Amino acid sequence: MPKEIIDPEPEGERPRSIRLTDPRALRAYAHPLRMSLVGLLRSSGPFTATRAAELTGESVASCSYHLRILAKYGLVEEAPGGRGREKPWQATAQYTEWPEYSEDASIAQAADALSAAVAEQYFERVTRAMANRQRLPREWQEAEQFGDSLLHLTHEELADLGARIDALLRPYEARASDPSLRPEGARPVSVLRIAYLDLDVPDSEKE
User: Fold this and answer.
1) Distances from the Cα of 109 to the Cα of 22, 27, 98, angstroms
2) How many domains, in total, are found in the chain?
3) pTM of this structure
4) 67 and 91 Cβ atoms separated by less than 8 Å
5) Membrane-crossing residues (predicted)?
6) Taking 90 as the threshold, does the pLDDT of residue 90 lie above it?
7) Domain limits at 51?
8) Spatial distance between the Cα atoms of 161 and 165, rounded to a whole number of angstroms
9) Number of other residues whose CB lies within 10 A of the CB of residue 55
């Protein structure tokens, strides 16, 4: 299923994932600022709308409005402490998931639109990373991964491959908010996983 894999929350403190199936929630989350706010809350929260404005460059009023919309659909919630406008917000889950398929056209269309919005955000982040990579030490430049593979798989094999990659990444998730688990030299690394049936490649069937 489609899943954002940015900025995970600590394992065990909150649900690992929230699944969106309401078309209104899917459309609401597709807003770039809202996706950014949820990602920031997962990596740097809890924080107030004032802090959100500092992190995003948007106005406090705008951030406050979008945080309330996110709360309406269960993606964020008020965190303990704070008063009035200075109330802190926190993410409700580590990841966001949504349907990869639905017979309901409204859900399918909203889910595809959200996936497209997330892909655009991924592209922007990768572009920024590539623009800044010359500032990195040599060992990090050499360790970074950038490439693609064209595989011939059945849909069962593709699903199994995704599950195995999930299992491979899972042991590192708890490090996000527990610095004691990080080995010396560990730094935040975004791992993007995109696998799709490539209709641009001629598909020759076996005879």
Assistant:
1) 11, 9, 12
2) 1
3) 0.80
4) no
5) none
6) yes
7) 17-147
8) 6
9) 16
Question: Alpha-carbon distance 196 to 186, whole Å?
Answer: 31
Tokens of 4: 């954002």
| pLDDT one-digit tens code per residue, 17-33 | 999 999 999 999 999 99
> CATH code at 63?
1.10.10.10
Encode pLDDT of 128-179 as tens digits.
999 999 999 999 999 999 989 999 999 999 999 999 999 999 999 888 878 8
Is residue 87 packed enough to be buried (19+ CB in 10 Å), middle (13-18) or exposed (0-12)?
A: middle
Tell me, yes or no, whether 201 lies in a domain.
no
Cα 175 to Cα 4, 55, 122, 159, 200, distances in angstroms:
18, 22, 22, 26, 39
Query: Cα separation of 118 and 123, whole Å?
Result: 9
Sequence-separated (6 or more) residues with CB below 8 Å from residue 132:
none
CA distance 51 to 80: 16
